[in-house]
Amino acid sequence: MNGLNWTNLAFLLLIGASLAMLLTENWRLFIACLALQYLAVFALISLQWSIGLAAVKLVVGWMSCAILGASQPRNELLFSYRAGTAGLLFRFLSALVVWLLVFSFAPGAADWLPVGNEVLFQGLLLAGMGLLQIALSTRRIRSVVGLLSIISGFEIIYAALSDSVLVTGLLGSLTLGIALIGAWWMHFLPEEEMSA
Amino acid sequence: MTSAFLWVFVPLGLGLVLVSLHRFARISMTIGIAVCLLLALSAMAIEVDRTYFWGGIPVKLTSEMVLLGRTLALENTDRAAVLFLNLICAFWLLIGLLFDPIPSFAGYGVSMAALLIGAVAVQPFLFAALFVIMAVLISLPLLIRLPDRQGRAEVYYLIFMTLSLPFLLLAGWAADGVEANPLDAQMFSYTLVLFAIGFSLLLAAFPFVVWVPKIASQVRPVRVFFLLSLMPSAFFLIFQHFLRNYAWLGSSGMLSNALSFSGLVLIVFSGVWSAFQDDLGRLFGFAVLFENGFAFLALSVSGGVHSIGLILLFFGRLIGFAVWGAAAAVLSHHGTSFHFDALKGLLHRSPAAAIGILSAYFSVGGLPLLAGFSTRMFLVETLAVNGSLNSGLWLLVGQIGFLVGGLRLFSAFLKKKEMAGEPLPTAWFELLLLGLGVIVLLIVGIFPSQFFGLLTNFLAQFQYLPG
User: Which of A152, B160, B408, B435 has the most CB within a 10 Å radius?
Assistant: First the structure.
């Protein structure tokens, strides 16, 4: 498979996983999509870095998924949006708006960030979906996963700018730390009854 | 041995050990206090890059440590920050030990202080953001809510802090670009914007302020006072460090204007909102924002390069917060809610706590004869000399709003005896602590030149003074 196809496949995976995470109300599917999203991030970063260094992102991401997955004792526990079809449609339309915004903003940002249009688009799209995840829900777990998505989106862009081992290590620790905090919250802090 | 190893990695390791002592809260907190005081003492006594002879063996604390291609460097000028942050940590651990012994407080607190010192030390400077976020993550398990409160303050805190990271790292990359090509005006503007957004998120500048009053009202007082004393102090020191490292950013004059504007907006916003609060916790949150506004203003009038003014400003602020925090801890210890309705008649029920809170509040508000007055006066005078009449008027609006909030609090405390509940039992150490705090606020307020003169001479040892 040549580089272009690999990129397209990873990009489609990224879009599909981030959208599914936004729409799904199934806990297992949610975590599976997060794992797929990290696979896509790894694939995209491996185009910039060596496979070995890029694999750090995959390992750390999947470890985060494992931590979050292990912390949820029951399926669908305090997780559903409870907003029905209208809510689903609203979230899908919001995602479309984010895509459009990113699509219009990315070329301008590419003027001063020397990372290439497509890398910028992928990174900003993931970060935008993460921001949407945070904005549309009051559930702690969704906020945590939204933050993880924002960091992943940033990592895609930053990988094209710098390949510092220290930054990779610290960002990896940060990802794990956020996942651990998310797991700790779910375990120790009861989630109040909220609308979304 | 390197200074970063002694002041960053040793306390980090000890912090981990202390977390493992979670079954023995009082022991771990006592050890934590001792560790912080020893580190503060070492920062005071040991000069970096100077050879000492211990038992005939030459020992030297070198300034630079290389870690995975990056340098951690704590120079003599950074010793004041080490001293300052460790003293804050030691004080709040002591208050925690007295009023709210928490199993992991010492471990997390010592580690947070170490990471924030690491943020000051790391080179290139922009990697500081990563250390800061690590400190934020470590602080999160401490943020346990009060039993009668619900909300997601800790989530907002994590979100805002984490969002600053991409902006600061990108700004660091862009700043390297500007240093390589100083004539690139477009890159210069982008760098400034990225820095502004990143630091605004980190320093809770307007409009990224929502988490501060929320966290102040929802989390147990000792922990929140610790967090909001340590974090903003460290962030402003880091910010000042950044301004020193990237002095060219200030050359356009845009930075000074932005800092001044940001400070004024924060002062007016927090001052006016303080007048409408009905909760002591939220009021403290707005007081933090109010103080942050003055810190921005101080950085703008000093050109952002002299940290001595900042440390002096922070000393006044921290004394006020310490007295307020101790009084709030006394109230929380007796299960008193922080809503104004529950605090009615507090002057009759617990005069020491009420007087402590009021003196601290009005000190933060800059009332004459209290510790906060002299630094406020200095700032207002500087603004007047610079001819910023509009700024002075806006400052007055914020100041009046903040004082109205204080008067409402005072009025609640003054309610008639029959409206108040049972008197709160006050232990001797509570009386001693609050009494001492109020006396210190008054002494600093009445003799500011002597106090700040002593402090300035003390800080001059660390070569903070220019020339």
Answer: A152
End-of-domain residue from the set B78, B104, B123 = B123
Residue B313 CB neighbour total at 10 angstroms: 24
Q: Which amino acid is at A102?
A: V
Residues of B in contact with A178 (CB under 8 A): 137, 158, 162
pLDDT in tens, A126-181: 999 999 999 988 788 889 999 999 999 999 999 888 877 878 888 999 999 999 99
pLDDT higher than 60, residue B422 = yes
Residue A140: inside a domain, yes or no?
A: yes
Q: How many structural domains comprise chain B?
A: 2
User: Taking CB atoms and an 8 Å limit, are B173 and A164 in contact across chains?
Assistant: no
Indicate whether B212 belongs to any domain.
no
Please give, rounded to a whole number of angstroms, the shortest distance from the CA of A2 to a CA of chain B.
Answer: 30
Total H helices, total E strands in chain A: 7, 0
Outline where DSSP puts E strands in B335-450. Answer: none
Select the residue from A141, A147, A148 to test the B interface by mutation, using most B Cβ atoms within 10 A: A147
| Res B12: pLDDT | 92
pLDDT in tens, B339-390: 888 888 888 888 899 999 999 999 998 888 888 888 888 778 877 777 677 7
Closest CA to A173 of B401, B324, B130, B117: B130
| Strand pairing category for B70-73 and B57-60 | unpaired
Q: Quick one: what percent of chain B has pLDDT higher than 70?
A: 92
CA separation (Å) from B71 to B90, B126, B180, B328, B357? 28, 12, 20, 41, 44
What is the distance between the alpha carbons of residues B426 and A38, in angstroms, rounded to a whole number?
56
Query: Directed axis angle between helix B307-333 and helix B428-446, to 10°?
Result: 150
Q: Please, what's the b/e burial string for B128-159 (b: 16 or more CB within 10 A of its CB; e: otherwise)?
A: bbbbbbbbbbbbbbbbebbeebeebbbbbbbb
Nearest to B133 among A158, A167, A174 (CB): A174
| B224 and B116 housed in the same domain | no
Domain annotation covers residue A175: yes
Of B262, B321, B322, the C-alpha closest to B292 is B262
Q: How many other CB atoms are found less than 10 A from the CB of residue B454? A: 11
A95 within domain boundaries: yes
B463: left (phi over 0), alpha (psi -120 to 50) or beta: left
ipTM: 0.91
Q: Please give the residue range of the domain that contains residue B92.
A: 1-123
Q: How far apart are CA B452 and CA B301, in angstroms?
A: 19
Residue A14 lies in domain: 3-188
> Into how many domains does chain A fold?
1
Q: Is A161's CB within 8 Å of B158's CB?
A: no
Helices and strands, number each (H, E), in chain B = 19, 5
Q: Cα–Cα distance between A149 and A154 in angstroms, integer?
A: 9
As a whole number of angstroms, the distance between CA A160 and CA A49 comes to 8
Residues in chain A with CB shorter than 8 Å from the CB of B145 are 189
Residues B266 and B405 in one domain: yes
